[in-house]
Amino acid sequence: MKFSKGTDYALHAMAYLVWQKDSTDKLPVQELAQKLDVSSTYLSKILARLVKRKYIIATSGAKGGYSLPANWKEISVYDVIVAIDGEPTLFEDSFNHGSECKIQRLMMEVETDMIQALKNRSIEQLI
């Protein structure tokens, strides 16, 4: 399974916000982009998706920026992946063999295990 660059940026941004969680300052997108060495324009689009899902909080103004919500410990790595890339799929069976196809069953089992592992990992575990 390959995740997009957007998911990579989102997970790193979330990890940085978790690492900075004790700071009372909001983190401006330019500062976050500089810390991650990425485009602030692209990062802004990624962060907007996380704001829409309420995984981060955006505050405007001179002292504005991004911060974590009160329930940030409940956000899983899987939540962030889905916010950026949608529901991931690992395997597409090109044949219409149905449920008796052992290859499809194996791949679906592995995919289910991977998704559960990502759901069981909090963003707090990113740092």
Structure commentary:
- There is one protein chain.
- The model has no long low-confidence stretch (mean pLDDT 90).
- A two-stranded antiparallel ribbon has the order 1-2.
- The chain is built from five helices and two strands; from the N terminus they run H-H-H-E-E-H-H.
- It is elongated.
- A hairpin with a 5-residue loop joins strand 1 (57-59) and strand 2.
- It is mainly alpha-helical and 127 residues long.
- The chain has one domain: Arc Repressor Mutant, subunit A (Orthogonal Bundle), CATH 1.10.10.
- It has helices at 5-19, 29-36, 40-52, 77-85, 102-119; strands at residues 57-59, 65-67.
- Helix 1 crosses helix 3 (40-52) and helix 1 packs across helix 4.
- It is 50% helix and 5% strand.
